[in-house]
Amino acid sequence: MTTFPRLAALAMLAGLVAACSPAHGSGGGSVAAGGQANAAPLTVEQLSARVGCKPRMQVNAADVRTGYCKTPDGEFLVTTFRTQAGKKAWMEAAPGDDPHLVGNLWTVMSSRSVLDLLRERLGGDVHLIDHKTRKMRVVG
Predict the structure, then answer these.
(1) Helix runs in the chain, H state only
(2) Which of 37, 49, 66, 117 is most buried, most CB within 10 Å of its CB?
């Protein structure tokens, strides 16, 4: 079960990744929800609003932003990235035992049951660790 202290620790991780990421990087073109090429990526606030939450910001840096949400579906962290390189760095540093929902330049971390509910409204893919091989696999 995901608890607020664990989510707060993950928010700190996002802040550390932001501090260690280069200030500028090639993010490539972005595709927002709806598949429009080069559309502006969704913000923490926009993603949170889609699931009925006004986020409490935990990290508000130029390269990464993280907001905490609590809804009837559960507690979760919404993180957005300025570049694909920043997202990749975060994904590599994220705790392997926590599932996350991943979209273009964003990720949501929580329990699997919460992510399954959020995926219906946000889209994305659920990423899980296969405990036999210790490798990431995508579900959905």
Answers:
(1) 4-20, 44-50, 84-93, 112-122
(2) 66
Half-sphere exposure (CA, 13 Å, Cβ side) for 111?
10
103, 107, 113, 119: CA torsion to nearest 10: -30
Inter-helix orientation angle 4-20/84-93, to 10°: 130
Span 35-71, pLDDT tens digits: 445 678 999 999 999 999 999 999 999 999 999 999 9
Per-residue pLDDT, 131: 44
The rounded distance, in Å, linking the Cα atoms of 134 and 136 is 7
Q: How far is Cα 69 from Cα 55, in angstroms, rounded to an integer?
A: 5
CB-based contacts of 139: which residues, under 8 Å, 6+ apart?
Answer: 125, 126, 127, 128
Task: Say how far apart CA 8 and CA 116 lie, in whole Å.
Answer: 21
- Within a 10 A sphere around the Cβ of 37, how many other Cβ atoms? 8
Residue 67 near residue 44, CB atoms below 8 Å: yes
- How high is the pLDDT of residue 122? 96
